[in-house]
Design a protein that fits this description.
Chain lengths: 426, 786, 212
């Protein structure tokens, strides 16, 4: 029987979990105290040993990323926390920060110590006013308590609506006051990041996971999870399920297990397709219920663990409509820098709109796939790749449904049936 | 090639591209290594002088290093070569070929099919590469992106957004090269577009370069739009006549009419850039009332058309046996200047010849003869300098390509720049130059305190002549520190005139008039017994000599009275003396002349300039079959008519003869240091005036180009915050600047300037202090709120 | 030339600039600040920011137009965003959005004539476990229905919008929210729930499983 392992979420059910008092009640900031007494390299080693990998989607080993920062270079170093959570389906960092911003601040203090940075920036998306309030207040309180301002400063930077700023180099450009478009790499942020200084960019959940690792030890952390995907993480279950929400579990749990714990797919319906880690990760179907949801398992099955955003769609959902909407999202969020993504999404949307309306021929499916082939791996950053994932994976699993649109001259689905309030609104 | 260049050992890296080995310097991008093999990888955003961006994705190739292949095609414009690298371009990799065709399809998908009416059609990288690297047929049939077209982003530049492929060359140029980030990418995604901030047009002195590097017809010039097809144009390599930067250019002519000029590619000088004046100010040649035939003043005192023989005879009659001098404006070609120099010495038997029709000094004459003539300081020296000191020189306004080179070095390697000046400037802000603020006239004292090294460069502007002792101080500083020193006049012809001997103190090739061996040298070369040994007069002294009856006649070439200090006296002198005027158009001088001889404008003749570096800039006639002849040829026939042949029947003959003379290898004129003047003190409403000419102003070579005039900087008088407070003036209020000669009223700008000073533009609309106040620098004026 | 906009508090703006090692980084919070004063990004705001940061106005407008939260025309006192990204759309966001358009008589990006409410379809707002989601002045309204969304906008037009699901005890105005996004603390962080029910679902289930 799979288990849940609330670590980050352990005390979210306490009314004042977001306050300094609430956080300290359960040992908050003790890990920072411990880490600050350690040699920075020992902290890095501990994170390396823990096996913690980036929780923003790419799964790069966090300790190794920290280790890339040149030492003794007489340059300022920076920690930048990516709190620009915008990948469709992804909804873990936002509730985390609303319920417990201090764990991130404590993580920042530890990470800054490890990479010898004096300043951290938290780049949070701008569409979450109350989360901004909570983080801003937590920073203020941490300064007042002397936790910040004595070696580590934290600056809150608030975005303004741009998915691309979740890409780390676009985020850095945005933070420097430029349009948030990705930068050429190399140089990588570890060498020339924010203000061209060595910089670590980490996801909220990655940094928030650090205090517990410091407090409980690397062994404790790596005792959870699978061989190459250590530890526990937040799985975000959403869509056509009876009980959507956040589930903190060891890496490697399967969707079947999560659904069992959570109460299953919407009663009376069955799973049709789902994303393992947001809309940029190729779709899965009910054939993938037993794939271990760790970096290797999902990858082996042809998708990516991504942000562990498990969006569940049942049989009432038209896959063409779903994919069109995602494609419109990528078109809207393409930064415009490179041709394949900027121009490609423009045409993908048009072709998909026609297909959803039943206009076109089967040859348009081939054109769609060929355009995806010309975008995937040809774009400047992963946004363009992500835009093709729902299309290619949906055609792979649901080609017949596309063709049904063409043969019927329109969408065979009733959109009302897939709403949450079907029946209720009548 | 300078010695520094050859001295640097270049590490070569060998890569294999499409099966061929090529060795290129470390750091070379793959796309350029391929060029060395003649393999053209298609590209749009790539530009060798802009930082790589990798945005258009057109140049994707397959790469493997040490046997490990990249999992996907890479942008060859962003990847430097590495040892053991194997590159497969579209020629050998089906994956790269498909990737490129795929990108091309996407670039064309939203591109309008308006090639038949697009200025770029026929010379369009998108058109050309779509043919060479695109699919033969289109399959994207949907709704294209549509924008309102075109929009004016300045009076000069129009933008057709739907043609734009968003390569960002223009925005990167503006930011990286010109430091004028007034055009930017706006919006995002498929709606991303180039644009300005709505209240601030693209007023950059360098804006035309964006049109030239635009790989599609998105940016077009208002002056050229819809004027021609590229295949109708005949292109001629040319050199810019506007300033001493020395830009390589190309002049495009259709049926005898110049339609556009483009920056040429000369890595040693202007790289691939030029300024908007060089690009667009050429209509003065055709828009004015050109002289088409000689004019002779008749017995009634009227100037009437005459045949060439009549005019030459009249001119000869007025000059033979008279005491005559020669005044050449600052714009002759080297060959013409040489003609004037030889004409003065042989036909007029005088050293009374000068090219400096501006505020000058004897100190300057000595500085030119002792320090500048024959010298060679190069753009390359700026590239390796540890520090550049600007003295009486505002590079962006007075020699814009020098500014671009300074800016390049500032951007790439944080070159330290110091400016000794009275007022801050846009260029100084861009260069983050150290500003040594002095009152006008006090520059020389400030130089003494500056420390330089043998790797430093001192760039001295022509305005240094307006401050006593400044040129001497600059030379002393150079001698003391070993720094290189260069003199940068504004006009394209001054350095060449100096070298060619159109100067009272020097014979051609820098031979001092005062040196008998030099005179013998020249006399032998010219086949004459002697050349005159009496020191010649400056322009100023010639004017005085006419008034004191010591000079009877003047041969005047390319002079505008409005440029001359004390122009009223000059005008009277021109009235009094017998004047032979060689000009392209009716002017303030031709109307006073006794004989007017029409000459060729720059596009109509062959010739060369020598830029501030001392580098020859040869050019060919762009307009074929012009009836107009270069000055030197006319001087030669005039000399014949006077019975004193100078044997310079063609530009080529003049060029050959001047080259054969070679440079003087003997001693230069000795330098005579001049002490700084006593500082002027101000009280009450008094201020010390200073001024310079803006790049775009009322200059006569900008006549007829209204679009260019639309990007002039505003005409303002500048005072310091403390003076502004004292007289109760704020930015936008009006100031009256006056002296006994007259007054000028201008809107005030309160900014960084010496408290004792007031600055105003020297030749802009409503602001010509030289004419109105007879004061340009260092003189006391009164400044009050108007 | 001075480009100071007298309606903008230069001291506040300078304090925003002072947060960063380099001035230019302040451009985004400054734009949020301009919206907190003017309700949208004004030209005088752009010019003031350019002067304060010593950059060209074009560089400011280039940044401002990149981000969708910056508006260039006045919008509603209550700016309502309906998530119509796939998951929310499928679960009811499309129905909510079209119902609101009809109910308010405005299109996407429109503003009601009284200036009270503006409407926009928005992308994923990181609350998928509360789908369908509606945002008002970027505060969360979770698990919306057509009816609840209508009463939200009706309340907003009447001046008494319901409180956000996860947010302060009252819905602040667009300008007030923009000040928060400029990094100015409005003192409301302590209000509202620490977490919604979906956020706590896994934790509660874990407690139950442990209890067994």
């Amino acid at each position: 029987m799979a288990t849940l392992t609330p670590i980050l979420s352990a005390h979210w059910d306490e009314k004042d979990s977001f306050t300094l008092e609430g956080y300290k009640r359960h040992g908050g900031y003790k890990a920072a105290e411990k880490a600050l007494a350690m040699d920075p390299d020992a902290v890095i080693q501990m994170i390396k040993d823990s096996g913690l990998r980036g929780r923003g989607g790419a799964g790069f080993p966090t300790g190794m990323k920290w280790g890339f920062i040149p030492q003794g270079d007489n340059k300022d170093h920076y920690l930048v926390v990516n709190a620009d959570e915008s990948e469709p389906g992804t909804c873990k960092d936002t509730p985390l920060l609303m319920a417990n911003p201090h764990v991130l601040i404590e993580g920042c203090i530890i990470a800054c110590h490890a990479i010898r940075a004096k300043q951290a920036f938290i780049y949070i998306r701008g569409e979450v006013t109350h989360v901004v309030r909570r983080v801003n207040q937590a920073i203020t309180d941490a300064y007042a308590a002397g936790l910040l301002g004595k070696g580590v400063d934290v600056v809150l930077h608030i975005g303004a609506g741009a998915y691309i700023c979740g890409e780390e180099t676009a985020l850095l450009d945005s933070l420097e006051g430029f349009r948030g478009q990705p930068r050429l790499r190399p140089p990588f942020p570890a060498i020339a990041g924010l203000y061209a200084k060595p910089t670590v960019v980490n996801n909220v959940e990655s940094i928030a996971s650090v205090p517990a690792i410091i407090a409980n030890g690397a062994e404790w952390y790596q005792s959870m999870g699978t061989e190459k995907s250590k530890g526990a993480t937040l799985y975000s279950l959403s869509g056509h399920v009876n009980n959507p929400g956040q589930f903190e579990a060891p890496l490697g749990i399967t969707l079947r297990e999560i659904l069992e714990i959570a109460g299953g797919v919407r009663t009376g319906h069955k799973l049709k397709f789902w994303t393992p880690g947001g809309s940029s990760t190729p779709l899965f179907t009910d054939a993938h219920l037993d794939i271990p949801l760790d970096y290797e398992g999902v990858s082996a099955a042809g998708s990516m663990l991504g942000t562990k955003a498990l969006q569940i769609f049942d049989e009432t959902t038209c896959v063409v409509r779903a994919v069109l909407r995602w494609t419109e999202f990528y078109k809207h969020e393409s930064c415009g820098k490179c041709t394949p993504c900027r121009e490609g999404t423009w045409w993908l949307v048009q072709i998909l709109r026609d297909l959803e309306a039943g206009v076109g021929t089967e040859a348009d499916l081939e054109k769609l796939l060929d355009l995806c082939d010309n975008i995937m791996g040809r774009s400047f950053c992963a946004l363009g790749d992500g835009a093709t994932s729902p299309i290619t994976s949906s055609i792979k699993y649901f080609r017949d449904e596309y063709i049904a649109h063409l043969t019927q001259g329109g969408c065979p689905f009733d959109p009302v049936q897939s709403t949450l309030f079907v029946g209720a609104s009548k | 090639m300078t010695t520094q260049e050859s001295a640097v050992a270049v590490e070569l890296i060998t890569v294999v591209i499409d099966g061929f080995e090529v060795s290129v310097p470390k750091g070379t991008l793959v796309i350029r290594a391929a060029e060395k093999l003649g393999i053209q990888i298609p590209r749009f955003c790539d530009h060798p002088l802009l930082d790589p961006v990798g945005a258009c994705r057109q140049c994707l190739v397959d790469i493997e290093i040490n046997g490990r292949a990249f999992p996907k095609p890479q942008a060859s414009c962003t990847i430097p070569v590495e040892p053991n690298m194997i590159v497969k371009t579209q020629l050998t990799s089906p994956v790269a070929d498909k990737a490129q065709k795929g990108v091309m399809e996407l670039l064309l998908g939203n591109h309008p099919l308006d090639c038949p009416v697009c200025d770029k059609g026929g010379e369009c990288p998108l058109q050309n590469q779509a043919m060479s690297n695109g699919n033969p047929t289109a399959r994207l049939g949907g709704v294209k992106r549509i924008f309102e077209k075109p929009i004016n982003i300045s009076s000069q530049v129009l933008l057709d957004r739907e043609r734009c492929v968003l390569c960002a060359r223009c925005t990167r140029f503006s930011e990286q090269i010109a430091s004028d980030p007034f055009i930017t990418l706006n919006e995002r995604g498929a709606l991303q577009q180039v644009g300005i901030y709505e209240n601030d047009p693209f007023k950059s002195y360098f804006s035309g370069n964006t049109i030239q590097i635009c790989p599609v017809g998105a940016l077009t010039g208002a002056s050229y739009r819809f004027r021609a097809r590229p295949f109708d144009l005949v292109s001629t390599p040319s050199a810019c006549e506007h300033c001493a930067s020395g830009c390589d250019m190309r002049t495009d002519v259709r049926r005898g009419k110049t339609l556009r000029r483009l920056a040429g590619d000369d890595p040693a000088v202007n790289e691939e850039w030029n300024c908007d004046k060089g690009r667009w100010a050429f209509k003065y040649i055709t828009s004015q009332n050109r002289l088409t035939q000689p004019l002779v003043r008749n017995a009634e005192g009227e100037l009437v058309p005459a045949s060439w023989p009549e005019a030459l005879a009249a001119a000869a009659a007025g000059l033979v046996g008279k005491r005559a001098g020669v005044i050449v404006g600052g714009r002759p070609t080297v060959e013409d200047a040489y003609g004037y120099a030889k004409f003065a010495r042989i036909a007029l038997n005088t050293n009374d010849i000068d090219f400096r029709t501006r505020v000058t000094s004897d100190e300057e004459a000595n500085f030119l003869a002792s320090t500048v003539v024959g010298s060679a300081v190069h753009y390359r020296d700026i590239d390796v300098a540890d520090h550049v000191l600007l003295v009486a020189f505002e590079p962006e306004e007075e020699s814009p390509i020098v500014f671009l080179r300074l800016n390049k070095n500032f951007k790439k390697r944080a070159l330290a720049v110091t400016s000794v000046a009275t007022k801050g400037s846009i260029a100084m802000d861009k260069l983050k130059a150290k500003f040594i603020k002095v009152a006008p006239g006090n520059e020389a004292q400030a130089l003494a305190a500056i420390s330089l090294t043998a790797k430093s460069v001192i760039l001295v502007g022509e305005r240094a002549s307006e401050s006593a002792g400044l040129l001497s101080a600059a030379r002393t500083l150079a001698e003391k520190t070993g720094a290189k020193i260069a003199w940068i006049p504004r006009r394209a012809g001054e350095r060449g005139a100096l070298e060619a001997g159109a100067f009272s103190q020097l014979l051609p090739g820098g031979r001092p008039v005062s040196d008998s061996a030099a005179r013998v040298d020249i006399a032998a070369a010219w086949g004459v017994s002697t050349v005159p040994s009496l020191p010649g007069r400056s322009v100023r002294a010639m004017i005085d000599a006419v008034h004191s009856n010591d000079l009877d006649a003047l041969v005047v070439g390319g002079v505008d009275l409005a440029d001359m200090p004390q122009s009223a006296q000059a005008k009277e002198a021109f009235k009094k003396a017998f004047v032979v005027s060689l000009e392209i158009a009716h002017s303030s001088v031709t109307e006073l002349a006794d004989v007017v001889l029409p000459v060729a404008a720059v596009t109509e003749k062959y010739g060369s300039y020598i830029n501030w570096e001392g580098r020859p800039r040869a050019f060919a006639a762009a307009v074929a079959d012009s009836l107009n002849r270069s000055d030197v040829r006319i001087l030669s026939v005039l000399a014949d008519a006077m019975g004193q042949s100078i044997m310079l029947g063609t530009v080529t003959a003049a060029a050959r003869e001047f080259a054969q003379l070679g440079k003087w290898e003997g001693a230069r004129a000795s330098h005579v240091a001049v002490q700084p003047g006593t500082p002027v003190s101000v009280s009450g409403d008094q201020a010390i005036i200073t001024s310079w000419r803006r790049l775009l102003d009322e200059g006569s070579l900008q006549i007829g180009e209204d679009n260019l005039a639309g990007t002039r900087r505003p005409t303002l008088a500048v005072i310091s915050p403390s003076r502004a407070q004292k007289i109760g003036v704020a930015t936008g209020d009006h100031l009256r600047i006056s002296n006994a000669q007259g007054s000028i009223t201008l809107p005030a700008l309160v900014e960084e300037i010496h408290d004792d000073a007031v600055w105003l533009p020297r030749n802009s609309i409503g602001s010509n202090p030289l004419q109105t106040l007879e004061a340009v620098h260092g003189e006391l004026v009164t400044v009050v709120k108007a | 030339m001075s480009s100071v906009d007298p309606t903008l508090n230069q001291e506040v703006m300078n304090s925003i600039v002072a947060r960063y090692p380099r001035k230019r980084s302040a451009i985004m919070p400054l734009l949020h600040y301009v919206q907190s004063v003017a309700g949208y990004v004004t030209n005088s705001g752009i010019e003031n920011i350019a002067e304060m940061l010593e950059i060209a106005t074009a560089e400011v407008s280039a940044v401002a137009t990149f981000y969708t939260q910056y508006k260039f025309n006045p919008i509603g006192e209550y700016h309502v965003g309906v998530c119509t990204n796939t998951l929310c759309a499928v679960m009811g966001g499309d129905a909510i959005f079209s119902a609101l358009k009809e109910h308010l008589g405005i299109e996407n990006d429109g503003v009601t004539a009284d200036g009270k409410v503006s409407l926009e379809h928005i992308e994923c707002n990181a609350a998928c476990d509360y789908a369908p989601v509606v945002m008002a002045n970027w505060e969360f309204y979770d698990n919306q229905t057509v009816e609840s969304a209508k009463s939200l906008v009706d309340g907003a037009r009447a001046g008494n919008p319901p409180a956000p699901t996860r947010g302060p005890n009252r819905l602040v105005t667009y300008k007030e929210a923009s000040a928060v996004l400029a990094g100015l603390n409005d003192g409301l962080a302590g209000e509202g729930v620490q977490a919604g029910s979906a956020t706590l679902l896994g934790l509660n289930l874990a407690r139950k499983m442990e209890g067994k």
